[in-house]
């Protein structure tokens, strides 16, 4: 038991240093557990059979087809036309599009697509400022990603951990009604107040349009009509399977990716080259690590020891507030996926000890981790927006009102949808 605890602690600390490749660290941690505990390598590689891996793999392939088919270019021109060259209206349109697509695709992938759209628009129309568009759109994709199970990697991990712990994870649209009010108020903020805040922060800065090189990393976007049709067909099939529950979410995503490949919207070579293998390996190994950690009883033992040292009665609601705040703070400085891995076992164990609503507390942790965006450190794709010319303080000053809106609304609504915390 202690061996697994020590290995996981060392692994998390190593991840926090940002000096090592996380997927390599995860593989090493799995190997060490097989050496020092009663687990085989087959046990530690079982995470690759998890539905989460199929979701990432399938949506990665679909995203390549989405960009390559030329749909992104069409969207850029359409948004410009609908906005009638009104920058403020354009930002709102991009943000709505970003949030909507993020609910159906991984928000990391959508953020890249949205950055490409913002770059394309800024290059085509110099009156549309890259910095005014990019950050609001990416923040909208982060919030929109919380609407569904597949929208955010942290949600996928949390669902897998809950399924292991209490026998039931999150459903595809479980968070939609919970997050929708926060999204609506966030979009209103972006349109009415965020634009003015942005102008005050970076209006006098030089736009780094010519130095924005993210497009060079993506596949050729000159698509054919057939590729667009195949990609749209794949999207329709995936949505049908998501809503009908005929298959798991992972199988539905995989079918969508296969339609793109078999239909010729993306070649096998391009599909394999653009799949985020490092994320897949990291996720699979983490699923196995978390399973081993939960089975070992280390977290429960540590919490019981800590609570045994507490000599005063602490109201449970205060513990819930502390868990939420700690999750929020940590997630603003390290990847939200890492935060979920740290905090979900703690939240579940606390709920078990107090006989509280484990599902409600787990949802709270998941939302707090996923909606942290006060620093570019909270996620890699948010850090990508710094190429547009943002400074570190811009994220805090622009993101703080948005984060407060989301946190307050969701914290109030969780007991409405999931019952009281205790």
In percent, how much strand structure appears in the residues? under 5%
Give the biggest sheet: none
Which structural class do you get from the secondary structure elements? Answer: mainly alpha
Distance between the termini: 30 Å
Instruction: Estimate the mean pLDDT confidence.
Output: 84
Overall shape: it is globular
Radius of gyration: 21 Å
- Work out the helix count: 20
- According to DSSP, the number of beta strands is 0
Low-pLDDT segments:
211-219
Q: What order do the helices and strands follow? A: HHHHHHHHHHHHHHHHHHHH
How much helix is in the residues? over 70%
Structure described in brief:
With 422 residues, the chain is mainly α.
Overall description:
The chain is mainly α and 422 residues long. Helix content is 73%, strand content 0%. It has 20 helices and no strands. The relative contact order is 0.15. Mean pLDDT is 84; it is low at 211-219.
């Amino acid at each position: 038991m202690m061996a697994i605890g020590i290995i996981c602690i060392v692994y998390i600390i190593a991840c926090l240093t940002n000096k090592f490749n996380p997927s390599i660290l995860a593989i090493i941690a799995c190997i060490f557990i097989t050496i020092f505990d009663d687990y085989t390598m087959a046990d530690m590689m079982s995470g690759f059979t998890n539905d989460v891996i199929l979701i990432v793999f399938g949506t990665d392939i679909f995203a390549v087809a989405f960009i390559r088919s030329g749909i992104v270019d069409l969207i850029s021109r359409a948004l410009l036309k609908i906005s009638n060259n009104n920058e403020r209206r354009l930002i709102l349109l991009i943000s709505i599009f970003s949030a909507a697509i993020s609910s159906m695709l991984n928000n990391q992938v959508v953020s890249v697509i949205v950055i490409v759209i913002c770059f394309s628009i800024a290059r085509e129309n110099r009156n549309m400022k890259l910095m005014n568009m990019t950050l609001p759109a990416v923040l909208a994709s982060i919030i929109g990603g919380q609407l569904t199970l597949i929208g955010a990697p942290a949600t996928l991990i949390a669902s897998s951990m809950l399924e292991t712990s209490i026998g039931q994870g999150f459903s595809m649209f479980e968070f939609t009604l919970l997050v929708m009010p926060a999204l609506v108020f966030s979009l209103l903020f972006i349109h009415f107040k965020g634009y003015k805040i942005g102008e005050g922060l970076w209006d006098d800065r030089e736009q780094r349009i010519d130095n924005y090189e993210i497009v060079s990393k993506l596949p050729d976007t000159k698509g054919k009509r057939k590729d667009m049709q195949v990609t749209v067909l794949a999207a329709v099939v995936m949505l049908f399977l998501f809503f009908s529950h005929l298959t798991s979410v992972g199988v539905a995503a995989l079918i969508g990716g296969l339609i793109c490949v078999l239909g010729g919207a993306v070649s096998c070579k391009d599909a394999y080259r653009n799949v985020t293998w490092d994320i897949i390996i990291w996720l699979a190994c983490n699923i196995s690590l978390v399973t081993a950690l939960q089975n070992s009883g280390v977290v429960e033992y540590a919490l019981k020891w800590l609570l045994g040292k507490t000599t005063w009665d602490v109201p449970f609601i205060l513990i819930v507030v502390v868990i939420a705040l700690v999750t929020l703070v940590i997630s603003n400085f390290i990847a939200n996926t890492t935060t979920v891995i740290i905090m979900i076992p703690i939240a579940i164990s606390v709920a078990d000890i107090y006989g509280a609503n484990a599902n409600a507390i787990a949802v709270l942790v998941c939302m707090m981790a996923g909606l942290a965006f006060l620093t570019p450190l909270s996620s890699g794709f948010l850090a990508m927006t710094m190429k547009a010319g943002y400074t570190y303080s811009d994220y805090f000053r622009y993101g703080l009102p948005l984060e407060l809106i989301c946190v307050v609304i969701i914290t109030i609504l969780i007991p409405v949808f999931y019952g009281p915390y205790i």
